[in-house]
Amino acid sequence: MSELSVDHLLGIKYLNKADIELIFNTADHFKEVINRPIKKVPSLRDITIANLFFENSTRTKLSFELAEKRLSADVLNFSSAQSSVKKGETLIDTVNNILSMKVDMVVMRHPSPGAGVFLSKHVKASIINAGDGAHEHPTQALLDSFSIREKLGSVRGKKVVIVGDILHSRVALSNIYALQLQGAEVMVCGPKTLIPKFIDKLGVMVETNLRTALNWCDVANMLRVQNERMDVSYFPSTREYTQQFGVNKVLLDSLDKDIVIMHPGPINRGVEITSDVADSKQSIILDQVQNGVAVRMAVIYLLASKIKQ
Fold it and tell me: Residue 104 is part of a domain; what is its CATH number?
């Protein structure tokens, strides 16, 4: 298969297994490119991409921007904190203004679930969802799977536990879809109050004992507690959360096998994982960051090649 089955990347649930394989094979190529002395390729010299971030983001935004520049695209950055959105302008107005500048692709993060889907129906540009509320974050899930594939050879048949704040996490949902699509077994682990009620409908296992979960898995993806999305307290205290669901080196070393530790970032060091775990040989957190650029280059390149047709 030489092209994606979709015209936008709105969520993992719209992709098929062949799409993921194509993205990964393309990312393999770009990973080799970004490790060269000259890290740019002229592939998208005639493509203009607008980054629209209606929510704060540092890592995702930088990663997309770097990916776009490595592909030689023209980049427009837009942050709603400094924009007319504060004056009451709607999403459609904002986007139409940007599209009148002849933009080919929009990378958007928005607090409302489904914002990317809404946009894709109303504007003539390819849309990449960089996170919509607590719904999906497809490029994060792709780079996580890509990193597991790189470390363990394949995702198929692997046991992956996602630990922490599942309820407020768009990373968790996208990861569940992506991992299952590739044939991995998925478990979620965290306080009962932070596990969504519908989770069993997704065919994942639920475990509230961290040690049991870690002994079961090959890979543990540690999520941070998203305090900014919480309007009430979901657990008694951060200290108690850390005692029950935090991974430290003593716990890691006491398991009967070596497991791979991942984290989508930003890390609350000392809460969900300690520094000696984040910086250990078992951690692939920095690989995830590097792979993020290659995977986003692959997604942008593959979607842009459909625009050009």
Answer: 3.40.50.1370
* CB-based contact 259:220 (threshold 8 Å): yes
CB 47 within 8 A of CB 212: no
Q: Is 95 inside a domain boundary?
A: yes
Mean pLDDT of 122-137: 92
* pLDDT at residue 229, rounded to an integer: 47
pLDDT at 57 over 90: no
**What is the predicted pLDDT for the residue at 21?**
97
Dihedral angle sign, alpha carbons of residues 55, 34, 43, 150: negative
User: Would residue 196 count as lying in a domain?
Assistant: yes
DSSP assignment of 209-238, as one string?
Answer: -HHHHHHH-SEEEEPPP-GGG-SS-SSS-H
* pLDDT tens track for 10-48: 999 999 999 999 999 999 999 999 999 988 999 999 999
- Find how far residue 172's CA is from the centre of its chain: 9
pLDDT, the chain, mean: 91
Same domain? For 73 and 213 the reply is: no
C-alpha to C-alpha distance for 64 and 186, rounded to whole angstroms? 28
Identify which has the larger pLDDT, 59 or 233: 59
- Whether a cis peptide bond, with omega within 30° of 0, leads into 266 is yes
Domain that holds residue 296: 12-137+289-307
Determine the Cα–Cα distance for residues 16 and 186; give it in Å rounded to an integer.
Answer: 18
